[in-house]
Design goal:
The structure is a homodimer of 255-residue chains. With 255 residues, chain A is α+β, with helices and mostly antiparallel strands. The first copy, chain A, is 49% helix and 19% strand. A four-stranded antiparallel sheet of chain A has the order 1-8-3-6. The first copy, chain A, is globular, with a radius of gyration of 20 Å. In chain A, a hairpin with a 2-residue loop joins β10 and β11. Chain A contains ten helices and eleven strands. The N terminus and C terminus of chain A are likely disordered. In chain A, α6 packs across α9. The first copy, chain A, binds a DNA duplex (30 and 30 nucleotides) through α8.
Chain lengths: 255, 255
DNA sequence: CGTGTGATTGAGATGGGTCAACCTCAGTGG
DNA sequence: CCACTGAGGTTGACCCATCTCAATCACACG
């Protein structure tokens, strides 16, 4: 694979520019030197197959990972074997922060399909953070986004009805695809219904019924994992501020 | 109150040693110089009264905060005004990470009772992190613990029954009191039933019933906010691995 | 053309939400 | 000293969203 190192580096750099690492290294107008230094420490790993794991619960933290191709899920498993999906990670998104606290991973990261990743070894990271001004701040920002996502997730599990959760999930996924440059209204779900259910704190049948209902309402069109959002507006209003949406309707009629 | 500055600083340092900042600055055998430097940037603020807010949603991030006396809650409020409590913060625990991502706070931090805090101004923090080797790593560790707590919370909201949630909550609170050097089996709840409900993703009546039921089962004794854990063992087995506990019982009898 | 895995659908059971009454107690004022 | 008041907490009755259990479907794969 490393048949041509120069070519490889160039390709890597191009990739970094369009993955979440670009938010980690580029924004403050990073120089070419620093960029090279960063590129030099980023490892690639052999491709992963579906259901292969990047790390398991209890593994010592060795690196931060970025999905380069393919998607991942991070899963927490409690004492009685129940799984809770903590997050899904599309190409360009970060994984591995769960071990920051203890140095041991508390989740599993599992490929949802064939995948490739970039890996930033932990010890190298410390050096580079010190060497490149602003990188530490940037990294905090990336971590912060991850924290924010967890908190949105919390809010969703704490207060929302099944149907709202499903709408929020699809809407969020659509936005993430959009920001990756993929079509936002037609894509294929990288994860199973089971995974969705365990992410949303629901049971698979409820997810299935929710999809069917959204389809009956003309909001989406699903067939297996293939999804088309036929009424993005409506999906959005179901997702953000469900009662707002209702209020909007009634207000605009009465006012 | 700041009648004697020298005395004040000494007191502050003593306080830092026993609050979560000690995990942030002391562990790698930090020198006296660095400790002084850290002490110098830590602000105190005037005492806060019950229901006063440290920051509000949308406020720019200015500092990290540590509860010094009294407890806090951090609350997310969604589009239709529903509140989800993201976390409770006992003395020595950190607040303010929620703004790392965007630089704007996405939660409110509100004092549950009379409280005092220490404050680490953000810009000073950056300097000190660079100046004190190992502090950055330590800070990542503290952040990691906060992430871990959010993920436990997620797991709880996603998969657990009301009664398990309540047991987990009380058990976790008890552990935190223990690690603060307070009695772990008898304490007063810093938050209302309402707050507990909104933290657990339940309604207040369910929390109340849950308490009553735990009391009927002889696990706790509650009167208002005063709580005694009469059977810590049983509480723990309800909290961690509910079905394990059941399995244990039946196994130990049959095997 | 079976066989298995994932998804959908239906029917029935139930945990916990909703609504409403009531209790407890601290604070206040007569 | 007692009655009133209001906020927080408890309890009960009812109901519904979601879970459970089970049958069926869809489709990929050997």
């Amino acid at each position: 694979m490393p048949n041509n190192v120069v070519f490889d580096l160039a390709k890597l750099r191009r990739n970094c520019a369009q993955c979440s690492l670009h938010q980690l290294c580029l924004p403050a107008g990073i120089g070419q030197d620093d960029l090279d230094r960063l590129d030099a420490i980023v490892h690639r790993r052999r491709p992963l197959a579906r259901s292969e794991r990047l790390y398991r619960i209890g593994d010592p933290m060795e690196a931060l990972y970025v999905a380069r191709e393919g998607s991942f899920k991070t899963v927490a498993i409690n004492s009685d074997g129940e799984e809770q999906i903590i997050g899904f990670h599309l190409p360009g998104e970060l994984m591995g922060l769960d071990a920051l606290g203890t140095g041991l991973h508390r989740c599993e990261a599992e490929a949802l399909g064939p995948a490739q990743i970039c890996e930033v070894p932990l010890e190298a990271l410390g050096d580079v953070i010190h060497a490149i001004p602003g990188l530490g701040t940037q990294m905090l920002r990336v971590i912060g986004r991850s924290v924010a996502r967890d908190q949105d997730h919390l809010e969703m599990l704490g207060r929302r009805q099944a149907q709202e959760r499903i709408a929020m999930f699809l809407h969020g996924l659509s936005e993430r695809f959009r920001s990756l440059g993929h079509p936002a209204t037609e894509f294929s779900l990288p994860m199973s219904r089971e995974d969705i259910a365990r992410f949303l704190g629901l049971v698979i049948e409820t997810v299935s019924r929710g999809f069917t209902r959204l389809q009956d309402e003309g909001v989406i069109k699903v067939r297996g994992r293939q999804l088309r959002i036929t009424d993005p507006q409506q999906l959005e209003s179901l997702a953000i501020g469900p009662s707002d949406a209702l209020r909007d309707h009634s207000c605009s009629r009465s006012a």
